[in-house]
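Bit of a strange request maybe. I'm writing a small parser for structure token strings and I need a real example to test against, not something I typed by hand. Could someone generate the tokens for this chain?
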Amino acid sequence: MIDVDAGIEAELREAVRLAKSYAVDYFRALGATDVNTIPRETFIARCHEGFHLAQERVLKNVLSLQQRLRLVRAQIQKQSKGKKRAEIQRDEVAQSLYKEEARLLTIENAFRRIADTIAWQILRFNRVLMRSTHTGHDGGGYLSDSNIASAVEAIAKLRKPGEFYLINDLTLCLGDGAGDLTVVKIDQSIAFAELKTGAVNARIVEFLQAYGEKTKEQILCIEEGNGPRTPEECPVHSLLDANSDLLTDNRKRKQIERMVRQMERMNAVLEYEHNNIGIDISLTAKGKPINRSRIAYVSETKDEYAFAEIRDALTNVSSSAPYFSYLDYGPLLTFLVTDNLKSDAFSLRRSPFVRTMNAKHMIYHHLHPELNDCRLMNGGKEGGQEFVAYSKLFLLNWATQVLADWSVMPPYIIPLGDDLIFDLLFGRRSLYVYFDAGAFADFVTEAADGRFVLKPGGLSTTNGRILPLSFPVQFRRMANLRSAGA
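Reply from user aminoacidic:
Good idea to test on real output. This should exercise your parser:
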């Protein structure tokens, strides 16, 4: 959750508008009532223009936030020097600096998720492809320490009307396997590009390209029976001889190895995308290849999210006291929706920790209606037992999770509406998600044992008993699934 800041929210809203609806707004301002009548390439070009403007705004804000992060982290290091952990935890100045660091990181992630919003659109929501670009050692560091200036300069030189160049380092959802830039043409074809600057890197690229071409030529000559008879007649040998310093100098050779590894990663990602099978580019904890293949499985389910119910709950929670409500999806998943401007228990004047504990307490009593009275107020042994029980519940704040987790859909394209999304991100409303991992494990185990069959009205056990279990409409497609033993 982002602390309330009108300036940051206005900046985020404008960047989101540019990334999502710039083309539609542009043509409607010109009097177009039906955007479907606009020539496709004209509309795509305008979308790409909006992406480019949004990316410029995201880059400006991320660079500014990271500059402030450097200063805060330097102050944290200075304030914490020579102190033990317990002393740091008691140091109010150090704790305020840590809080400011977390705030700046959250805002940075909010801007980066706009870059993710662009990536999801140009890659057509292909999460399998996006996940395949990650090695497990991606990210980290500051943009100003990377080749971000070279990327901006390259885009200015290479970008043609109607094209878009996404700076991959701005995103959270794309890893090292996507290179430095994702290039999108007017026909929506996509390519990954790796940027290298400096005379040595330029020479290495020319050498690798020439080596590939010469190798192919020599293979053809050998197949035709015209292979070289001496080293002097061999074009590959001549090329290697002319560039021997690249292979003998330790630093240059390591740079060649790094560039070759990067090209292999990018090729592996593209092969995986084209064939649904390819090499897993993930690395071990020590940074070594894991040497395994992977197969893509893309679900045919389209109605993947039950957002209609959540949107209605978020909208209606403000209409009447107590200004919070629940959404139950069987015994496994429970959502708690709150209006933090009207509900005292979740007021913004309370700390995030207190609001989370209040949410756990309320969900605990919602899950256990047999506990008519709250035992916590009585104190003693029973009160302590209730506190321990509800404090152990697994609970996520949706806004915090969706900003930090690159593997999920960016919040700005989730179909809840921009106003509700920003209410959640800036803490005016909250969506807490409770998941019962133990019940889920039991559910899977019993299903595998053939003890019951999942049906829309509940669980039908093998002896015919019906257990009450409600599922949203989107999940009822599972009703025809039967375990092998049923």
